[in-house]
Design a protein that fits this description.
Helices cover 65% and strands 0% of the residues. It is an all-alpha fold and 110 residues long.
């Protein structure tokens, strides 16, 4: 796994200092903008490998339940950036995943 996977893993690790996690999530959003889809006007080589894309998309929902609002926001922005290119054709499970997160989200994070 490459750079994007490392960014999402750092973003989701609660034992890493908040500032590093937030920066990692923001950089992840930029990584998606520049490396996710060749049709993007902002695309730059290299394109994110399909294996990395799958790992990132599978991991991101965890971040929507983070106890830190700024991490949740940054992860949400990364999800939105991916959804722009992958939903619904390449990410059909996005909507059910978001509904599940909303159903299971602790009330103190609402």
């Amino acid at each position: 796994p490459g750079y994007g996977v490392a960014l999402v893993r750092i973003s989701l690790q609660s034992n890493i200092p908040f500032g590093i996690r937030q920066l990692s999530a923001v950089v992840l959003k930029q990584y998606v903008k520049h490396h996710w889809d060749t049709n993007s006007q902002h695309f730059r080589q290299p394109q994110a490998p399909e294996e990395d894309k799958a790992i990132i998309k599978a991991a991101l929902p965890e971040g929507l339940q983070d106890e830190t609002p700024k991490i949740r926001t940054a992860i949400g922005m990364a999800i939105a950036a991916i959804a722009k290119w992958d939903w619904p054709e390449k990410w059909p499970e996005l909507l059910p995943m978001l509904v599940n997160v909303l159903r299971t989200k602790p009330s103190n994070n609402a």
